[in-house]
Amino acid sequence: MTIKLRELEVAAASVIGTAAYVHYLQLFILKVTTPTLIAGIVFGTIYLVISLGLAKSIKIFYLLGIILPLTGAILAVVRLHLYGFEVFSVINIGFDVFVVPASAYLFYKYRRAR
């Protein structure tokens, strides 16, 4: 099976764009606390920018699509540990589990082609 890089870019952009939306959505559903506010605004905006960068095939966003969602996933796991189960954290980890390897594959293919 051959993975078409453009289709993977679009898929990763769509998933992380959805993650951005979910980060903003949680601000209206969850009790607003400092961690919720930070995650919602900061990561929502970062993920939105990464989504646009991947959709436009801007190569630096392959690397950012690895580092920043991985950081977000780690922070979400810490949040689950500290505050207990919270559905948005689990959903966002699920998005990151797709985006990080997809971005890593795109980055690997880009670096190999150079």
Supply Rg: 14 Å
Total helical segments: 4
Please state the average pLDDT score.
Answer: 94
- Shape descriptor reads elongated
Description:
86% of the residues lie in helices and 0% in strands. By secondary structure, the chain is an all-alpha fold. The protein has one domain.
From the structure above, extract its key features.
mainly alpha; 4 helices; 0% strand; 114 residues; elongated
Short description:
The chain has 114 residues and is an all-alpha fold. It is built from four helices and no strands. It has helices at residues 5-29, 34-55, 60-83, 87-113.
Topology of helices and strands:
Layout: H1 5-29, H2 34-55, H3 60-83, H4 87-113
Helix pairs in contact: 1-2, 1-4, 2-3, 3-4
